[in-house]
Every structure is written in structure tokens, then in C-alpha cells.
Amino acid sequence: MSPTRYTKAGFRFIAIGLMLCTLLVFAGCGSDPAPEKSEPAKAPAAKAPAAKAPAAKAPAAKKSLFEIADANIDPDRSRVPAGKLTIGVHVTVSPDWMNPQTVTSSLMPYELMWKVQDSMLKPSEQSVFTYALAESFDMTDDFMSVEMRLRDGVTFHDGSLITSDDVIFSYENYHGANAAFLHDKTKTVEAVDERTVRLTFNSPFPDFIFYYATPASGAGIIIPKDYYLSLGSDNASRDEGYVAAPIGAGPYKFAGQEAGVQVEFEAYEDYWRKVPHVKTLISRGIRELPVRVAALKTGEADIVYFVTGELLQSVIDDPNLGYDPNNSAPFWLMFPDRNDPESPFNDARVRKAISLAMDRDWLSEQETLGMAVPTGNFIPYSWPGASQRDPDKYDVAEAKRLMAESGYEDGFEIDWFTPFPAVESLSLRIMDQLAEIGIKAEMQVMERPIYYEKLRSGLEDDKMSHKGFPGRQIVMSISVLAGSAAGYIDTFATCDGNNSLICDDRIEALWSKYQEVYDPAERTKLMLEAQDILHEEHMMIPIYINAFTMGVGSNIAGSASDYTSVKMSVLAGPNEDFKLK
């Protein structure tokens, strides 16, 4: 069989919009109280235009989403890293974020992961898929086998050479998100030579690159086999030891941590792509927005994530600071007990009323100074296969009529409104708008690890409620899945999806058929049909494409936008490219 090389010239099948998942979940802000409906000053235009189909963080041309680009390698090895840069993260930082063997399919772990670790392929400014530790990636015409070759001479932080054994072990021992799926798909993993690995699949697996080369899994992140095995007698003990002292192949070496508070890294001068500019990087969790912004203004932090509301205006107005709107992905609402006939959320009219009761333009103005983009899809418009849907228009009168028609003229109380972690301010505003049509709730605030633990606990056996979110709830979510619309459907809208609160026979049938066909037009059609069901019946209610606004301090060289250009990511980077004045 002749190999088909996944390159600009030959990414034949994947370029048509195959699936996949990768939960690069992010988002958050401080829990500042919701102010009155006032008109704040307008910020400069956001990166994404306030139009029906804005470009969030994905490139406009679909082809570029599926290229494997060549790495941009700096041959100058004479640089001496200097200085210190601190990033204020909007959530608590977890040591587990440095262990690719257990990583969840979400984005925030890569705030630490991409400092200390490296992958065979990874996203870059050029493309979602870029050669990293691998110099080649070839799949056979029938999608039954893939062969990858390591760059010559790449090393781990302890100086040991990365070999095929490390690549094979990292894959076979992987036990994080989508591990069982990948292992079930794989027939054999073998070393062709010291630098080349071949994977053979049990059935055609054209979607492999999405699972292997994005944060859908950590199976493509290479760890030192011998070091990991030296840390204990089983994976549990090894994982515990590894997060205490990780060794990877990324641009920065682990230097120390205050668990749950901050992690410090030191430049790895032998990093294959370039010598990092900055000597010391610190990622510090600063959950409270006012504290985060104060740290930026005083210089305690050089970069901070997710600046919102009135404090966003203060950053924009400060001549010593910079910012980038950093538009990302939609927030949306979900209903864990939608299938329960006794639940008011079982009625599509109630769900539509909720959508009509939200003034998305006002929410965007209050939270992001108009930089967030109201949307009619829970999938970013620019992702391959995403339907281009206008948001529902704000219409409280029609919302009240639908509530009365469905038997809830006086409204009803629910157990909880559960925000996405650290998004209490937006949630309070939405709760106030829902109260206008009689829906009342208490807010259930969770830390991010607890939220994800509950989200991933799955539906009950009868599919009428959710194990992690029992009772009557509205749950908010946000996610970036690198790849295509199919990844969102798989993860959030199938009965067994990793983060799904939905189980619908029609969507299950469409998803099953999607996995059985290979015609690109048919695959796209199936995913558009699934989106039509989800949105026309308001199973998910999109709010707006978030402005994950990043603030930068006066010590940072260049503009904020210089550090928000990695495809399908809102994390600052690449880390080795940070520069200080």
C-alpha cells in the first residue's frame, strides 16, 4: 500500500471535515457582582466581527485547519534566556496538568502541559497540526496504518534521547481521556527503528490525527519511559510521583511548585525548536478577577486571563497595559433532566422561552464591552461542518406567552443554576433575565475539577437524568474542540459522550451513520442534521462567543495579539516565544 502523507499537498481525506474531539475547555472570570443595566464605554472592535459567522480563533480557510505545517525552527542557539514572566490564570492550577498520561480532554491543563511537555504533532501559529517531535506522519491509503518518525537528536530534560520506545510506551500506557477508545481501535504498535513507530488499526481510522494530535487525548505527548517506570510499581503511584517532579521534552523544565497555587519553570536551552527568550515562567492561579487585574496593574503578573466587565474597561483605559479580545467559543446552557416527562425542561416551548428571555447583546455589552459575539450555535461558526445560525432574538413577551402555553404562566423554581466555573457574573445576569419569565433558581458554584468530575459522570441508566447534575438544573458550559463540528456532537450530544447531558434517538442514529460512511458530503449533511435537531428544539441554548480577553503588562515586548495566535487555542504562547522588554 502506498503511503498518503498528511501535508499541504496531500491531506486528502481529513481535509474534508472529519471529526473529532478535543476538549480544550477554558473560560472563567471573577465572581464580581452584576451591576445595573448601564451603558459602559465601547471597547475597540473585537478580533471577531459582530456578524452572523465570525471567525473566532480558527483560520478562515478550512484547508489550513487540516494541514500539517512545518515547524518554525530558530537556528540561533547562542541566546541566553533572561528575566521572569508570571501568568495570572483565572482558575486554580493543578499539578495534574503536567501529566499527559492522565490528562482530560480540555484546554486548561495545557497552560502547564505545553511548558514542560511536547507532542509528536501540536498546534502552532501556522496550523492546528504542526510537526513537533515528529518530522513525518504518514497514513496508508486505506487508513489502516500510520507511521511516524522522530526528529534526530531530540531529548528530554534529563538529557536522555527520545526513542521509539518512549513513543510506544506513551501510547500504550496512556490512561487519560479517550484512552480506551484509542486502544480499542489499535491492533499493534511497533518500532520500525529507533526513531520510527508504526501503528496498525483494527479498522479504518481516518480520524486518528484528531485524537492523537489535539488535546482530545494526551497519547501523542511523549514522556520518558524509564523515568516514569522508576516512580512506582503501578500507574497510580507513578502518576503521583510524576506530577511532583515531571520530566518532559517541552521548552521549559519543571523548577518547583506550591501545589494548587503556582508552578515555576526554567528555560530548557536544548529545546529543539528554539532557545526560549525568558529564563523563568510562573503560572499562578488567581481566581478572583479584581485580584488578577490588580496583579497586572502592579506588575505582579505580566499576563492575565479572562478580564471582564468594568475591570476590562480599566485595563483598556490604562496606557501602560495591553489587551487582546481573544475570542474563543460559545457559552451555552444545557438541561440534565430534559428527558424526564415530569421536568418543565422536557417541553421544547419552555426551552425556547429561556432562549428568547436572554438579551445576548446586553449580556455581551455588560460582560465584555461588546467584544463577545451573540451566536445561534454551540459550535464556533468557523469550525468545519458548523451550521451558520443566527441567535434567537430577545423577546420577553413571546417568552412569557410560551411559558403560559406550556402551563407555566406563573413560572417555576428549579434546584440550581450551575455556572461554568468562575463565570458567576454572566450567570447572575442570565438568572436575572430568566426571573423575568418566572424561572427562579439558586446558584451552585463549583471549582473546576469538581464541575468536570460531575460533567463526566454520565447520564443515569434510564437516560432521564444525569448522575453529576441531579434534580432540576440549568448547567452552563463552554468548550473548544479542535477539529470539526463532529467532535462537538460526539462529546456533548451523544448518549455516551464524554461530557454529554443529552441522549436522543435521532442524534444517535445520525452519529452511528456518520461513523459508517466516508463520503465527505454525506458526513457533513449528517452533522448539519444533528445540529438542526439540537438547536431547533433548543436542547442546547447558545449565548455568545466568549471574549476570553487577555491583559498584558508593561514588561511584555510586542502586543497582546502576538501571544494569542496559536490555532484553536486561547492560551498565551507559544511559551518559548515570550519576550520581555
From TrEMBL:
One of its GO terms (molecular function) is peptide transmembrane transporter activity. One of its GO terms (biological process) is peptide transport. Residues 41-54 have a biased composition (Low complexity). Gene3D superfamilies: Dipeptide-binding Protein, Domain 3, Periplasmic binding protein-like II. Residues 131-454 form the Solute-binding protein family domain. SUPFAM superfamilies: Periplasmic binding protein-like II (SSF53850). PROSITE patterns: PROKAR_LIPOPROTEIN. Residues 35-54 are annotated as: Disordered. Pfam families: SBP_bac_5. Keywords: Signal, Transport. One of its GO terms (cellular component) is ATP-binding cassette (ABC) transporter complex. Belongs to the bacterial solute-binding protein 5 family. This is Solute-binding protein family 5 domain-containing protein. It comes from marine metagenome.
